[in-house]
Design a protein that fits this description.
62% helix
Length: 66
């Protein structure tokens, strides 16, 4: 619904929640993929807390499954 309404910040917040769930499930690769799909659509707002959280999570996740 957030995507359909163009609510990118809400998409990010949902993606952050999904990432946390997938990490608890041991699915780091899926977590990275879902967060990257949303994060990469941003062109501004990188100083807001949600964006900084997303960047920190992406930096901590492996780029390729191990």
């Amino acid at each position: 619904m957030a995507h359909e309404q163009g609510a990118l910040l809400w998409e990010l917040r949902i993606a952050l929640s999904l990432v946390r769930l997938r990490l608890k499930q041991g699915r780091a690769s899926d977590a990275r993929n879902s967060l990257t799909q949303v994060y990469d659509r941003f062109t501004e707002g990188f100083a807001i807390a949600d964006m900084q959280t997303a960047r920190a999570l992406l930096d901590s996740l492996p780029e390729h499954p191990s």
